[in-house]
Amino acid sequence: MNRTDTAVLQTPPRPVSLPRRLALDAGDPQAFRRALRSYFSETFDCTESLFRTLDCDEAWYQRPITLRHPLIFYYGHVATFFVNKLMLTRMIGERLDPHLESIFAVGVDEMSWDDLDDAHYDWPAVERVQHYRDRVRSLVLELIDHAPLALPMDWENPWWAIVMGVEHERIHIETSSVLIRQQRLEWVRSRPEWPACPDSSPAPQNSLVEVPAGHVRLGKPFDSPRYGWDNEYGHHEADIPAFEAARLLVSNGEFLDFVKAGGYGNDAFWDEEGLRWRDFAQAEHPSFWVRKGAQWHLRLMTQEVPMPWNWPAEVNCLEARAFCRWKSQESGLTVRLPTEDEWQRILATSDWQLNEELPANANLYLEHWASPCPVDRFEQGAFCDVVGNVWQWTETPTYPFEGFKTHPIYDDFTTPTFDERHNLIKGGSWVSTGNEAEPDSRYAFRRHFFQHAGLRYVVSDAPIVSEASHYETDELVTQYMEFHYGAEYWDTANFPKALARLAIAAMGEGPRRSAMDLGCAVGRSVFELARHFEQVVGVDFSARFIDQGVALARGDTVRYTVTDEGELVEYKAAKLADLGLADTAARVQFWQGDACNLQPRFTGYDLILAANLIDRLYDPARFLHMVHERLNAGGLLVLASPYTWLAEHTPRDKWLGGFKKDGESWRTLDALKALLGAHFEMAGAPREVPFVIRETRHKFQHSLSEVTLWKRVR
Amino acid sequence: MNRTDTAVLQTPPRPVSLPRRLALDAGDPQAFRRALRSYFSETFDCTESLFRTLDCDEAWYQRPITLRHPLIFYYGHVATFFVNKLMLTRMIGERLDPHLESIFAVGVDEMSWDDLDDAHYDWPAVERVQHYRDRVRSLVLELIDHAPLALPMDWENPWWAIVMGVEHERIHIETSSVLIRQQRLEWVRSRPEWPACPDSSPAPQNSLVEVPAGHVRLGKPFDSPRYGWDNEYGHHEADIPAFEAARLLVSNGEFLDFVKAGGYGNDAFWDEEGLRWRDFAQAEHPSFWVRKGAQWHLRLMTQEVPMPWNWPAEVNCLEARAFCRWKSQESGLTVRLPTEDEWQRILATSDWQLNEELPANANLYLEHWASPCPVDRFEQGAFCDVVGNVWQWTETPTYPFEGFKTHPIYDDFTTPTFDERHNLIKGGSWVSTGNEAEPDSRYAFRRHFFQHAGLRYVVSDAPIVSEASHYETDELVTQYMEFHYGAEYWDTANFPKALARLAIAAMGEGPRRSAMDLGCAVGRSVFELARHFEQVVGVDFSARFIDQGVALARGDTVRYTVTDEGELVEYKAAKLADLGLADTAARVQFWQGDACNLQPRFTGYDLILAANLIDRLYDPARFLHMVHERLNAGGLLVLASPYTWLAEHTPRDKWLGGFKKDGESWRTLDALKALLGAHFEMAGAPREVPFVIRETRHKFQHSLSEVTLWKRVR
Questions:
Q1: Given a cut of 50, is residue A351 above it in pLDDT?
Q2: Scanning every residue of chain B, which has its alpha carbon at the shortest distance from the alpha carbon of A81?
Q3: ipTM for the complex?
Q4: Nearest chain A Cα distance for residue B672, angstroms
Q5: What's this model's pTM, rounded to 2 decimal places?
Q6: The domain over range B208-245+311-464 is classified in CATH as 3.90.1580.10
Q7: Residue A127 pLDDT > 80
Q8: B340: closest CA among B391, B275, B411?
């Protein structure tokens, strides 16, 4: 075991030197090769340097926290990642070491604290992993030097795998630095290349700064000259009302008041999730605080120091929220964490800029210390530490911007976190480099998780606006979302759209006041009918279906997965504006209802569309007996059905047709004529309209729906 | 109640006059209208005349036997039939009386004796039905006189409905005459227009006549000038060895010896079905025999007469078989009923001809009596009564000829009897007219059923050859039969054929000795591969599937239904010869087998095709690990699969792909490369071949199968 005196660590500053970031628009291929060579190899070196803080086998092989692998895994993982992604873009055709690459493939990130990892691993020796890393380094350098390269460097470029690998490694340099900080102190050692900040003093007084109302426009274009992870691309805009924000990050000193006030023990300051975590963790103060008798110390990456009260408090999101609730009570103000949009407004109100010639005016890029520093050390306009020092929790669960799509070689980078349980952190920390250090980067962690992260609070009465990030995965709903709003397969035109057009055409110059789509499912025909009708009501028995239509009408992007093969999925999204239907939303309504027992309010329509409905009703004749009552005189009933009678939907004795009756074949069409004849005349001949429902990438239902038009004449 | 003296009935003979039959090739439309007018109206009159034998309400409304409706039903039914069929061919657009037509629509024919009808009907008054019949008569005559008519008179002609209606009515004149014969004697009366034969004497001695070996060619062409029911069309040929046949029908006198010998009580003479019927019916002698003290009488249609021992015995098929078994025991010969083919040979050996100018030389066409007559009354060459007098049971369960198809307006005339339980009767009876009286008509009844039918026995050691008539209705088997041998849907080429061609093309100039189709289902690819390979083995886990391939290889026509809508079906058939595959049958074998545990014998192949197999195996990796052992060096493995992994077929932990593995998307194709790499090289790029499986007329599975070719190199 090795312990190093704190004093030793205060010099020399910044020995670890890393290129800050990589320009993807470097003029010519040779220039790009040179830049990437440096970006890659210095990152690889940095990992080596970081892991030299591990002082014994236990440091490598014992898990610092039960929720993650031991550090040996991450040491190999960042190398294996290159091999995996290079295989996917076919820059290489063979693995280097299938055994090690299997061991190092799956990162265990962010497991829930109540979902303990009990897997057993037979970890290889450090030397073997070092040797493997050397081979990966040689391989990647060989590629960088000699592999064919065609610019531009965009998502489709096979070299994207290398850039992604470097950015991935930089993330792990940061997360490993956290794990080292969580490792037992006696197993790690300080290194001069990883110096802690020497400055420590009482906490400064925080204050509030006015942030004026403003417009936020987020999301990078796909031809951005900076690398991005999938969720950074696309488009998001919002108008943010004025609010106030703390000038400084909350310091250990400011946070101490909360601890002293019994904040950890007072349930009123904690939300339900916070209470569950607090009780599980038996937390009484920030995780890196160490009480020694009457004194507080702070655990840094490789050492413990007497508490630097003017450094930022490092807490998880749940603690940060509890602090804000306490602060609200203390101040009588509405104190809370900022949203992502509000953080961007704080950034816009600051004067933060990165000067390419000078050390960053922020505790960022490893350009100052291997630790936080005083919260008032880096002034960026009216604020300090808008970027750098430690990350800042936001109230925003991560969500995809408009136009979000997954990268083909890393489709699960972000999508698993679209679950309303991962909140964005902003601003970067002292160890953030590359993409991490970009103000538009969008990392998110479970709210109970620790990073080098703290908080800046805001005061605002504006409600917290969260964007929906949920991906609908219910198989039937997703099949119908794709059926109504997704791709066309087998050259078959969109069915609910085609039906609506057919119905509108059949209306001719007739009245266009009011239409109903009965059995509307996820609602495409409702919106299509509203291109023509003044009001359209969509009714379906399934609230799960209706919910999708309601969300679309609200202007939301509805996200859903479709099955690719087995459990693999593709990520899809639908939005009215993309279909030219945004204008129709004001004219539609959705209701849950039963076509066999329809509420009296649903009446007076010029058109009723019932598409693929009748063979799913429990009593279709009951519906057909009453449907004339819901139509205006002269109104049109449009029926479409593949007549797929199944006992699971319709008891056998309620089928309309598809059996022998009085000795003759009795088809559903015969039944429709018999049941509707009293009030309707059939308009035109029946026609068959095809439709396709995708089940997997390789399997589809391909059906024909018989469409009949019925004019109410009596 | 009215009873008529027997003596009165013996004169005058033959007052009921009916046109014998209708020519469909009558030169011009007017001639056809005239012929049909007479054919229709005299048939309609004949029904009226027949029902005048009913003497009281009970005769109309009480069921003569529990298995059938009362006679009032049949009186209305034959009229309603015209309306129903005219609706279907759209010669009329509206019903005459929907209520009556619903009552009279469904004939209750041939229920099993252990399947009693307990339906309740509220039958209309005779006068009301008479009035309805008058309206139908007027309607049909109006059509015959004035409806547009275009010749030829074939299946597609809407007028076919009228001809069918007349032939249908003639059948019911015969079956109603049987029901009247089964009605209580005191409720019916004799009529001079329905005279019984007056001749009665002791039975003549029967003898055997040599029938030389010969060829039989049956089945009428679809452009035949005579009306036919669906099962008479098509083609059947057979070579029949020489045999002997009784010169005479078995007379009541000859049958009495069987009765006297205790034949009804001796289980040894009865087969299992016969025993069940005999015990249920408590039969001790033929059904129409009436014992009066020591005397036997015979129930005729409207009277009882002292037993005419020289008339034919009238029995069901089970009694006829029992008689033959007794006769075999008595004679030491192999006595049995003839097959349909043998009956045709007897006909060909006779000199039966219908003289259009003279009364028939047969007790047929109602041209002599309304009863049977002595079995030696009508000599037709070496035999008597080859046609006429009473029908003759055969050993042949009815079956469809090659080229069988159902008529669009009467698709259940024959198909419900393709169940191996309905045996053909041949030759017609005294009341048979029209199509019934044609030697090529093919009526079949349950073997326990009574008609005016008896038997002529044959002596032959040739086995009874039965054609398969079973329609496969198992949903999965029928879907696969249609998939492999049926129509092409959505412009998608036949999949098993396309795969076989693809495999053969990939073989190039390679060896063509031996191939295996593993997971061959109903076997189309097996036969297609045998166009190229000297031997092809088809293996499937499902014996139900294999059975279809075996039957096809044997040269059978395999018949199956496909779902149209709900419970309605279409009738389909497949035969190798129709697909140009007859030659391949000698080179194929089918085996039941498990791809995951394949018997050692299956080895040494130049090609193995596994189409849509791997995602249906319980352990696909096991199959892939061993498959190289079954191929010759240089041999080709062709895999095709839509990769539809489902836990119901393959446990989740046995899926080859379709999940995240080591953090990356792991597709089935990745797994194939990994599993097969040790012994195979992939030949060419994967390609996707579409296939369609029909579920109903409106619903299809439309999938893509990824095809990969693997050459065994190690």
A1: yes
A2: B663
A3: 0.72
A4: 14
A5: 0.73
A6: yes
A7: yes
A8: B391
